[in-house]
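Sequence, structure tokens quoted for completeness.
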Amino acid sequence: MTRPDNPSLGIALRILSGVLFTGMVVCVKALSDAAPLGQIVFFRSFFALIPLVIFLMLRHEFPGGLGTTRPLGHLVRSFFGAAAMFTSFASVALLPLAEAVLLAQLAPVLTAITAVVVLSERLTKWRVLGLAFGLAGVLVLVWPDIGGGTVDTRRLIGIGLGLSTALLTAFALIMVRSLTRTESLGAIAFYFVVASMAGGILTLPWGWAFPDAQTLMLLVLAGLFGGFAHIAMTLSFSYAEASRLAPFEYVALLWPVLADLLIFNLPLGTSFLLALPLVLLGAGVAAFERKARLKLP
């Protein structure tokens, strides 16, 4: 079913998805000392599955839309996506939310570079420039820890995990780009969530915490926020073109900043403020390059 073009609604849904995503990572950070990582991943995935299945049923894509001719492709995409969820949640536990989310913004840059290696796409000056800005932003972010004489190991590990998240996300996005030629977005999302649940369950032998009422509430909310964030983002692209929504992806960085300041009482570091424009410029260059390439005959 083709929806009418409604840019205002599309933009509102894209902004809403950013708010919901921030609600999810706030819950994850609040849970970082109360539940093991694998347990958080499982609950986030399990309770995200509920709104996702309802959404697919309303679109008449469940269960009929889950059929696939490329199970191996789904397996590879789901592996990278689930691994990215683990590293993302681990980085959120170690870093301020604003820094963890900023590092995730490197994914478009790394996707452009990864496509050169994996899909044999052409290495353009725009991709090199985007990567240069992104790496400069990372260098600025870590410089206080590597150039100041005192090393914050916990923070460096968090930054390393954030970079791993961006790289794993890049590989996952490359697979999504390939799968969308033959597979529905609903099937791609469904199998990813199921794979993430399986990854979480595999950590059960290492011990899960028995949650109290507050911990259980946060575990459930993390999943519901994540599930509805994905639905809102999916719907936004059905009402407005991706190019029109692109600037509002960066508006989503505002909510983690506010969460750090108002919920976790974490001040914004000078290195973050200096790295922010560099990383966003790198992501913007990558997005511009892809948009221009898609317009070529």
The chain is about 75% helix and 0% strand. The CA atoms of residues 88 and 165 lie 5 Å apart. The chain has a mean pLDDT of 89.
